[in-house]
Records
---
Amino acid sequence: MSMQTQIKRVTVPEIRAHKGAKPVVCLTCYHAHTAKLLDKHVDLILVGDSLGMVMHGLESTLGVTLDMMITHAKAVMRGSSRALVTVDMPFGSYEESPAVAFRNAARIIQETGATAVKLEGGARMAETIQYLTQRGIPVMAHIGLTPQMVNIQGGFRTTGRTEAEWPALEADAKAVADAGAFAVVLEGMAEPLAARITGLIAIPTIGIGASAACDGQVLVMEDMLGLNPNPPKFVRQYAQLGPAIEAAVEAYAQDVRDRRFPGVENVYPMKKAQ
Ligand code: KIV
């Protein structure tokens, strides 16, 4: 038996190779049917902890648990076969120590079959990123607006709009790249800073509200499909599925009220008595 297994999904080195080349196409996804639909069109699927708000109606990502992430990541893995799947480490699952982060990241990788994890934080998480990557767990970093810090920051604040903020954020980007992250999400970041960071580090920057100066973009899928009635202002919507679903449900409700719904014999012919 050959010792080499064919890896059919996009690999971490393939994502790294996007640096300075073709932009990385990335969307969030939390369930099997949508994973199947977007699989061949994106390089990377992120099972983001934004699923707390989108799927579970939470106010922030802070209530998301490791078990929730694992459940949704399993569904996405079943629905997809090509894109690289990265899973967010939820609040409380990695900050305490590199060893705790490893244990929880290993659970994600073992139980879901996903390739990589993402965690929030720059220089302060560099030791953990190095610890995980040296032990076989690819890490995508996430700096700029980091939603898990909402209570410290007093809200979701965009970053880099004053030059005074730039040195710390540039140091964060350098620290996560030097620690071995294979890509870094820049969230809610002013374009001049996103451009500087993209030029400064050797790994792809994947922006969300951080401009086309980045090496790729990630959006929350429900935002770009028009399912979120209050999407962030920077999101371009490619469909209006919210209104489409409402119209379809209204038509369905009318059909049911008018008794326009079939029985099985409309689809499967009646059987003759033997
Ligand atoms: O959880 C998420 O969806 C994310 C993206 C916003 C990058 O982290």
---
Amino acid sequence: MRDIVIFVSGSGSNMQRIVEYFRGRGQVCVAKVFCNRPDALALKRAEQFGIPTAVFGKDALYRSDAVLCALQSLSPDLIVLAGFLWKIPENIIHAFPGKIVNIHPALLPRYGGKGMYGEHVHRAVLAHGDTESGITIHYVNENYDEGDIIFQAKCCVDREDTPDTLAKKIHALEYEHFPAVIEKLLIIPK
Ligand code: GRF
């Protein structure tokens, strides 16, 4: 059995998709969901599946080893960022080399970096008149959205698209590919 933990900040629909994908497959267990917002819908979703949750603030992440220690005690095979908006600090990156992955709702290296999340990304893609967008799953390093790319998938951007309709296309790609990419990383480690 492989254990993963998932970091979230908001809705948690990708987290739910990952949980559902691995349920009943018997090879991967979502051991805990870490969340930086006590009011996040993701926490309710995790609780509905009976997954333990941990809510933490900036002190626990940046000014102490509290989150690091919690992770070390779980010893996960993979740490998955699924809509987690804070930067992962160096102490955690160094403790889990090659074991932290993120999903970004655009084709990196375009539209990445601080402040580039959710609707901001889709607005920027539309403002530039791009005809395609997509998703990037990548390893996490010290800089936002700059770790090695593991996987990308594309979708068309149509003239009629709004940030909302583009977000729906991107979410569909995420649901289709993120769990399967996680599975590959766990079952066939690099
Ligand atoms: C996703 O689009 C993901 O790419 C980005 O944040 C969004 C999270 O959505 N990093 P959800 O919370 O999984 O619904």
